[in-house]
Amino acid sequence: MRIDVVSIFPEYLAALDLSLIGKARLQGLLELSVEDLRRYTTDRHRTVDDTPYGGGAGMVMKPEPWALALEDVLERGAAAPGPAAPGAGTPPGERPVLVVPSPAGEVFTQAVARELAEREHLVFACGRYEGIDERVVDWARERFEVRPMSLGDYVLNGGEVAVLAMVEAIGRLVPGVIGNPESLVEESHSDGLLEYPVYTKPALWRDRPVPEVLLSGHHGRIARWRRDLQLRRTAARRPDLVAALDPAALDRADRAV
Ligand code: SAM
Hints:
By secondary structure, the protein is an alpha/beta fold. It has helices at 19-26, 63-79, 110-116, 134-140, 159-171, 219-237, 239-243, 247-256; strands at residues 2-7, 31-36, 49-50, 60-61, 97-107, 121-125, 145-150, 204-205, 208-209.
C-alpha cells in the first residue's frame, strides 16, 4: 500500500517512523511519504492561507498549493511500481482515495479502516485554520475517490492528529503488518462489540485476584465468560453499538459460544 500525506507540519507525522507502522515501512509493506504543502507555494512568503470570502473569523487554505501538491502526488503514484511489487501503486482503473480529515466528515470507524486497508493508494490532505477551500474537494473528485473523514464529534487544530490515528488503524489491517493476524479478530469493533477485559500475571495483585474462570483452563467456560463481559461492557458503555446490531445475528453468534 502507498500512502501520501500532505501537511504544513510534516514533522508532526514523524511518529509514523515508530513501532509497527515504522517497521512495516522498513519491510516495504507500507510505502509512506509526507509532503510539505508549502513546497507548492509560489510566493516569497510561502503563503497557504487567506481570508474567507463572505467574512468571518479565521483563515482558509488557498486552493492553488493544494492542487499542485495533489497533482504531484498523483503523478508519483502513477509512476510507482505495480501492485504486485512491494511499494505498490494504483492498479489501472482504480482511483486513489483522497481522505480529507474534517469534523464535518463521515465518522471514521473500524469498518471504514477495513475498507481503506484494501486500497492500493491513499492520500491524506491535512487541513489547518478553518479548513481547505471547498473547490479543492470538488476539483479532486475528478481525480480521486474523495472521502471527507471525521475522527469524532470534536474539533482539532489540524488534520495531522487525525491522520496519525487513521493511518495506524488502516495500516495495522494491511496483511503482514501485525505478526499474529488472530489478534485482529478478537478485538473491539471486530464484531460490533467491545472487547472483554484482559489480565496478565501475577494472579493476585494488590489484593485483586484475576477472575477465577480465566485460571480454570476450561476453554468453553472462558469463551462464555468473555462473551458475557463483551455484551455487558458494550451495553453499559456503548448502547448505540448494541442497538446497531442485528438481533438474529447476535443470537446466532451467542449460541455459537
Ligand atoms: N472550521 C472547521 C469546522 O468547523 O468544520 C474546523 C477546522 S479545524 C480548526 C482545522 C482542521 O483540523 C480541519 O480542516 C481538519 O483537517 C482538522 N480536524 C479538526 N477536527 C477534526 C476531526 N474531528 N476529525 C478530523 N479532522 C479534524
